[in-house]
């Protein structure tokens, strides 16, 4: 059984702890859907002021909805479309302060105001993206980006 410890310390220390918890939680499990499910639950529990946290996985040359925490979401996203599709096509993290100012933003949840999307690379190829939304404008900082990228790096070892 896994128990999340109370997170304390600096933002960087909190993300480091989340990544260590993720590594321990996924140790020995080989099923990707189970690992992605637990990863989204852990991140959702560990981050504040977010309203959606989950994965879109590369299937048939598009992103397909995977395990997540939050309201129902868009199922199919074209590579290059919206924040998730842009992260996938550029293989680069997208940290968007105001999603309504992002050209081609896909509004799955009208409450979302900012977004952080990190590509997931497995064996040198795009596997999918981790998408985190917040109802606050400019919610995600550079420290959040670095912390979530560390979380994804940890996750990649278990996929």
UniProtKB/TrEMBL annotation:
PROSITE patterns documented for this protein: UPF0067 (PS01320)
Signal peptide residues on this chain, from the entry's feature table: none
Residues of the GAF domain: 52-153
Organism for this UniProt entry: Kurthia sibirica
Gene Ontology cellular component list: cytosol
Gene3D superfamilies xref list: 3.30.450.40
Molecular function via GO: L-methionine-(R)-S-oxide reductase activity
SUPFAM superfamilies membership: GAF domain-like
Family of this protein: Belongs to the free Met sulfoxide reductase family.
Protein name: GAF domain-containing protein
